[in-house]
Amino acid sequence: MEWVPVFLVTFKLIVFGTGMFFAIKWHYDREQEEKAKKEKQKRKQEQAEKDTGAP
Q1: Buried b (16+ CB within 10 A) or exposed e, 21-47
Q2: CA–CA separation, 45 vs 42, rounded Å?
Q3: pLDDT of 3-54, one tens digit each?
Q4: Torsion of CA 27, 31, 33, 34, to 10 degrees
Q5: In what ranges is there compositional bias, type Basic and acidic residues (predicted)?
Q6: Residue-level pLDDT at 47
Q7: Between 2 and 52, the higher pLDDT residue
């Protein structure tokens, strides 16, 4: 009966560890997505300025 707390604590650590990994990954991926979107928008704006000849 002494294996129950060991099993439950191990299970809890695995579940929380997995959850934290995916939470961090989700935030990191979202930040990279926003950076890429801003960079794409910046390039589009620069190209539009170059095409129109605006300063």
Answers
A1: eeeeeeeeeeeeeeeeeeeeeeeeeee
A2: 5
A3: 999 999 999 999 999 999 999 999 999 999 999 999 999 998 888 888 786 5
A4: 140
A5: 44-55
A6: 87
A7: 2
